[in-house]
Amino acid sequence: MRGLIQRVQFANVKVDGETVGEIGEGLLLFLGVEKDDDQAKADKLLEKVLKYRVFSDEQGKMNLGLKDTGGGLLVVSQFTLVADTRKGLRPGFSSGASPEHGEAMYDYFVQRAKALHDDVATGQFAADMKISLLNDGPVTFNLDV
C-alpha cells in the first residue's frame, strides 16, 4: 500500500462538476493499493498518515501530526501510485490490486480513518476526479508500508 501525502491549506475533489469531498488545512492523501495489501497494511499506513510529523510546532519545526492539529484528511484513490516506472516509457501495473480488491481496501481504509479522526473526506473510487489543492510548503511525502 502506498500513500502520497501533501500538506495543504485546502483541497477538494469534484466528480462531474460536483464537489464530493473537501477539507481546509490538513493532508491530501493519494492512496494506491497493491495485490498483496491487507487490512494490517491499511492500519499501519493509516497510523503513519495520522501521526506523520509534517505540521509546525511553536518553534516552526515539523513536529506535529494530523492527530495533533485536528486538521482535515482527504483520501483519494490513486491507482497510478503503484505503477512500476523503472523500465521503458510506459508504466506497468502488474503489482496493482484488482478493482474489487482495490475498492475493498480503499473502503476499509476510509472506514478506519473516519473511526479514528474527526475530519475525513473522500473522493469517489474509480471515478474521473478533478482535484484542487493549495499545497502548503510545498510539503509532500511518499509513504510506503
From TrEMBL:
Pfam families: Tyr_Deacylase (PF02580). Its main location: cytoplasm. It comes from the Bacteria. The keyword Glycosyltransferase does not apply. The keyword Transmembrane does not apply. GO terms for cellular component: cytoplasm. It catalyses: a D-aminoacyl-tRNA + H2O = a tRNA + a D-alpha-amino acid + H(+); glycyl-tRNA(Ala) + H2O = tRNA(Ala) + glycine + H(+). GO terms for biological process: D-amino acid catabolic process. HAMAP family: Deacylase_Dtd. An aminoacyl-tRNA editing enzyme that deacylates mischarged D-aminoacyl-tRNAs. Also deacylates mischarged glycyl-tRNA(Ala), protecting cells against glycine mischarging by AlaRS. Acts via tRNA-based rather than protein-based catalysis; rejects L-amino acids rather than detecting D-amino acids in the active site. By recycling D-aminoacyl-tRNA to D-amino acids and free tRNA molecules, this enzyme counteracts the toxicity associated with the formation of D-aminoacyl-tRNA entities in vivo and helps enforce protein L-homochirality. This is D-aminoacyl-tRNA deacylase. The gene is dtd.
